[in-house]
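User: My collaborator sent over this chain with a note saying "see what the structure looks like." That's all I know about it. Can you take a look?
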Amino acid sequence: MKKTLWLLITLLLVAAVLPLTSQAAPLLKLSWRAEYYDNSSLSGAPRLSIYEAALNHDWGNGSPAVEIPADNFSARYTITRHFEKGTYLFLLSADDGARVWLDGNLILDSWDFGYKSRKAKVYIDTTGDHELQVAYFEKTGRAVIKFEWLQMAGEDDIVGAWRGEYFNNRNLAGDPAVVRQDGAINFDWNSDSPDPKITRDNFSVRWTRSIYLREGLYRFRVQHDDGMRLYVDGKIFYDSWYDQAVTYHTLEVPLKGGYRTFVVEYYDHVGNAVAQASFDGDPDGYDNYEPGPDGAAIVVDDASPRFSWGGPKGNRYVGPGGYGSSSWTYNTTNNTINFGKWSPPIAAAGNYEIFAFIPGSNATTGSARYEILHFGQRDWRTLNQSRYSNEWVSLGIYYFKGGGQDECVFLYDSTGEANNSTRIAFDALKFVKR
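Assistant: Without extra context I'll predict from the sequence alone. Here is the result:
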């Protein structure tokens, strides 16, 4: 009896010095606090308050719980998460309405009836904890609320670009000699080198890019000399890894919806070096929206005094439509003949997202080459203008010191495509403070 009593006392003493639970803290930080209301207007006190691991609900014609009616209910979801500085894509699906706030700022507004999907690209300029809040209401019929996000680019990355790792050998061995961001895999180096640090022959490259896609059948186009391999989520779906002359292939690949990671591997043995890979339906920078009111941005049109031309006038043409007006030139393959220059009147230093307005006509090139000069740096962005029509398209976010003419954007008529085969459109650029 005494032994049993001492054992019980020992167990109680051990329990007293141990924490009661290790679950409460991570629940508050890593889970959504969900508050459900028995009305569609978030009125009064919530009937049900719980924690949920993910915001991914499709109740059909039902409800979240027995306390909540199948129609005419609403909910508020709140979470605090750690975000690194960079560009994020926020994705919302709802039936009926929903709104999303980031640190109290409204970033998605779809407060109406019926099913819809919305997305917003947001640059977060501070590493640390940030609060997300989602409001939702269901009127009648099917009830759906889904929300997620993914990081598209880090602080210094170009949104939509490929991470290129260049090796001074043919088998991607060891550490890369050069790591850079490539706007597109569309290279014809001929007998030259991709970079001064890379040999003219016997080199290899690995490009990596993660993309959010809808489920569907995608057509891939590749052209290479010598070998190339393509992977999606670690699974190879194109393998042509041997010495060969320029080879062109198309292939159709069914892909599930969601976040997909693509890897393109390439090597050159001797002679000409060609590496081109693309696919139809590439969302590029995920921009199919107007980036805020004009009053919140600096706009430089091609008719502005802050836009200037270089090259012979006889090779430039005025096109119909555009932001205010638009111009265009035929392309050259390698040697630049014409170029445009935008010099924004940026006064305050900071991060600015650059948007190019692509008109509905005379924008047929798949490789418009923009050069961004900012804060003593030089970045390149290759844009497939033919994918867009009368819309703003992001060229990425860059830091500008402001107050100088040395910060500007160039667009060149040399695209790498067959000479005079496409047209490059020159229209407005918009600089939005982030």
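A starting point for your reply to your collaborator: Confidence is low (pLDDT under 50) at residues 11-28, 287-295.
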